[in-house]
């Protein structure tokens, strides 16, 4: 597959990517390579990656615990201390090998260490391939509030190797499908229809087109001043639901994609009420979502807690929650204000 040129860096695919990584390491004469993994990618992905790394530079592996619950400043502090104790300097390179938690946190760690050292993202889940590894966003959660601490910082390159997808569960694959559905509903309906009609998906083409779309948007609006906000469709309410399940001791955590899928159904419902998005398309989105994901029943007694988390969404301005809503497929409206009672009604609609 042809490489994609992002804002300041390339996205390389499959075998070519590792040759480009070796060239980068040689050209920049890095002092030490720090490879950031979690216990899962250490076991399943590191053995696939390391034979492709052609270098005589010193390699140090730093392992953190997996899961969104560990995407916080405490984990960052541990990584910064490890890099320091292992002799990291301004000519060190951080290579993130993992899903969205690893790429988000690793990019943030690299961007802050000694006021910024280079990093390379190697996403190993479908979600991180189509979303977290591209676009220059780095950061961590503050408690259960998603991505409250972070900054924009671009990697030196991104490596997308779909062989890593053999190491993840079916549930994680489905988590990534939610982001592709988002691109389809808001930007390129072919993606939505392909997922709707095909059980045997061409995952490589879906990944490539998703990265193309995100890159097209980010090139026009790197700092999310306008157009890039479209990438938040489903995420405003979805993040609040994800955070609620993350902090609950009684409930099983939702994956990012599972929560965003619920958010997309709810935000389609809001779109129908406020912008005239066709009811049959609301039902179509809900049908496709429920054909992929097990239904999560949102309890009425939990609505108030979800609404409270919604008020802390990082995209809010002056305390006002902003949604991306739809006039139609591929026809969206940014910065929509939604009455609280309609948000609640949308969750009740999802439950039906």
**SSE string:** EEHEHHEHEHEHEEEHHHHHHHEEH
Which structural class fits the helix and strand makeup? Answer: alpha/beta
Under CATH, the topology of the largest domain can be stated as Dehydroquinate synthase-like, alpha domain
Tell me roughly what share of residues is in helical segments. Answer: 40-55%
Look at the structure and give the mean pLDDT. 95
Please compute the radius of gyration using only Cα atoms: 20 Å
Number of strands: 11
**Which regions have little confidence, pLDDT < 50, spanning 5+ residues?**
none
Shape: globular
Q: From the 3D coordinates, which CATH architecture of the largest domain would you assign?
A: Up-down Bundle
> Which percent range describes the beta-strand content?
15-25%
- Give the N-to-C terminal Cα separation: 43 Å
Trace the largest sheet across and list its strands. Answer: 1-2-9-6-5-3-4
Number of helices: 14
The named CATH superfamily of the largest domain: Dehydroquinate synthase-like - alpha domain
Instruction: Tell me the count of domains.
Output: 2
CATH class of the largest domain: Mainly Alpha
Instruction: Summarize the biggest pleated sheet.
Output: 7 strands, mixed
Function: Catalyzes the conversion of 3-deoxy-D-arabino-heptulosonate 7-phosphate (DAHP) to dehydroquinate (DHQ).
Pfam families: DHQ_synthase (PF01761), DHQS_C (PF24621)
InterPro entries: Dehydroquinate_synthase, DHQ_synth_AroB, DHQ_synth_fam, DHQS/DOIS_N, DHQS_C
Cofactor: NAD(+); Zn(2+); Co(2+)
